[in-house]
């Protein structure tokens, strides 16, 4: 055991008592022998602290006043000793082999993180059949592209899908607590590529619980969420800029901003607000990537659509035209094609010929193509 590096699992909890025992048990059940489990309770008012106390000396408890996710990360890191650190959300679960598979990769030269996808489960632990993220994770030395393009949304897994090198965490900690009451894992994920090599495991090594109180799935007001994500971007971009300056690397922060997913989305939403009246239904062709839900400001309709849910791209032009007309007759007043779906212009030429011949184009640039269907 003494020859193995120490791995720290930091369980971060706030009022997740109904899930907490399963999460702690999964940390203790790791087949990797040299580990410690720290459980940080961020001022819970449910049964969480009684559950934590019941584990006795099996875990290291950190009981604190409520301060948000970043403060829980920082408190857990201060109490930990491992050179490999895994932050585990208290509503998630690790598979037993997670550390055993990830720690050896983290010992490779210049590797600062190992990550993996997670199986999606429901409130009661039932498998949903999909992985999160669903597409292959980045793998390799991404420093050159990070410094060229800036921090970006590169298909990173959520909190429980990452094993971090303490070397990196020393460099970028503490996580700013005033900014990241939620989304502290975003700070780590976006800065990681600037500091070293990232290794990916192909198969899921944990379970990501999708439920009504989950930050990403609980239907947060879209405008508020977008504002928060842009605030995050501005914060971690400044940290990355300071690091590049420290290295003597010349970077272009204006080019970073132009390529930022969240800034692109902010400008696209501003265009939509300028063209489409608030609450007016519109078809949104974004391949379900924006996370925009119906609220008092926006009424997007996914395309293709079944019972209000995204159903994937159309099989051919004829189906696209038929579905467009169905939604138009049902009240859709505009169609918005996002930059991530501009490949549709070439893939469905008859569909776009139909749009251009029947309706006026309200906007066309590198972010959006918008047609007025009225």
What this model shows, in words?
This protein folds into 2 domains: 7-209, Spore Coat Polysaccharide Biosynthesis Protein SpsA, Chain A (Alpha-Beta Complex); 276-372, no CATH class. With 374 residues, the protein is an alpha/beta fold. The strands form 4 sheets. The protein has an 8-stranded mixed sheet with strand order 3-2-1-4-10-6-11-9, sandwiched between helices. Strands 14-13-17-19-18 form a 5-stranded mixed sheet, sandwiched between helices. A 4-stranded mixed sheet has the order 5-12-7-8. It has 13 helices and 19 strands. The longest helix is centred in the middle third of the chain and has 26 residues, at 222-247. Helix content is 36%, strand content 23%. Strand 18 (360-364) and strand 19 form a beta hairpin. Helix 8 (222-247) runs antiparallel to helix 10 (261-275) and helix 11 runs parallel beside helix 13. The model has no long low-confidence stretch (mean pLDDT 93).
Q: What are the SSEs and their pairings?
A:
Blueprint: E1 7-13, H1 17-28, E2 35-42, H2 48-53, E3 60-64, H3 69-79, E4 84-89, E5 93-94, H4 98-106, E6 111-115, E7 118-121, E8 127-132, E9 140-141, H5 143-149, E10 162-165, H6 166-172, H7 184-191, E11 197-200, E12 206-209, H8 222-247, H9 253-259, H10 261-275, E13 281-285, E14 299-302, E15 305-306, E16 309-310, H11 317-329, E17 334-338, H12 344-347, H13 349-358, E18 360-364, E19 368-372
Parallel strand pairs: 1-2, 1-4, 2-3, 6-11, 7-12, 13-14, 13-17
Antiparallel strand pairs: 4-10, 5-12, 6-10, 7-8, 9-11, 15-16, 17-19, 18-19
Helix pairs in contact: 7-8, 8-10, 11-13
């Amino acid at each position: 055991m003494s020859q193995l590096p120490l791995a720290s699992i930091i369980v971060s909890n706030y009022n997740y008592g109904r899930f907490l025992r399963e999460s702690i048990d999964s940390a203790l059940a790791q087949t990797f022998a040299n580990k410690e489990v720290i459980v940080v309770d961020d001022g819970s008012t449910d049964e969480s602290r009684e559950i934590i106390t019941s584990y006795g000396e099996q875990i290291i408890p950190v009981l604190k006043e409520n301060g948000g996710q970043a403060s829980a990360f920082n408190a857990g890191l201060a109490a930990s000793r491992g050179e490999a650190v895994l932050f585990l959300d208290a509503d998630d679960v690790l598979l037993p082999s997670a550390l055993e598979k990830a720690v050896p990769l983290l010992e490779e030269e210049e590797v600062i993180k190992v990550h993996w996808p997670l199986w999606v489960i429901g409130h009661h632990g039932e498998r949903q059949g999909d992985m999160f993220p669903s597409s292959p994770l980045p793998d390799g030395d991404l420093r050159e592209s990070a410094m060229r393009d800036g921090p970006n949304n590169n298909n990173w897994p959520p909190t429980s899908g990452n094993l971090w090198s303490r070397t990196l965490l020393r460099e970028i900690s503490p996580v700013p607590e005033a900014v990241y009451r939620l989304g502290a894992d975003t700070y780590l994920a976006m800065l990681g590529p600037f500091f070293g090599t990232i290794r990916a495991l192909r198969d899921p090594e944990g379970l990501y619980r999708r439920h009504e109180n989950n930050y990403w799935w609980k239907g947060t007001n879209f405008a508020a969420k977008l504002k928060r994500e842009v605030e995050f971007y501005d914060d971690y971009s400044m940290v990355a800029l300071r690091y590049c300056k420290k290295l003597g690397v010349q970077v272009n922060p204006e080019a970073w901003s132009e390529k930022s997913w969240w800034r692109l989305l902010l400008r696209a939403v501003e265009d939509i607000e300028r063209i489409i009246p608030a609450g007016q239904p519109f078809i949104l062709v974004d391949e379900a990537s924006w996370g925009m839900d119906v609220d008092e400001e926006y009424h997007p309709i996914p395309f293709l659509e079944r019972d209000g849910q995204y159903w994937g791209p159309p099989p051919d032009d004829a189906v696209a035209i038929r579905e467009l007309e169905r939604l138009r007759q049902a009240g859709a007043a505009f169609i918005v094609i996002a930059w991530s779906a501009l490949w549709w212009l070439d893939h469905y030429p008859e569909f776009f010929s139909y749009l251009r011949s029947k309706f006026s184009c309200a906007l066309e640039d590198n972010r959006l193509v918008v047609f007025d269907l009225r």
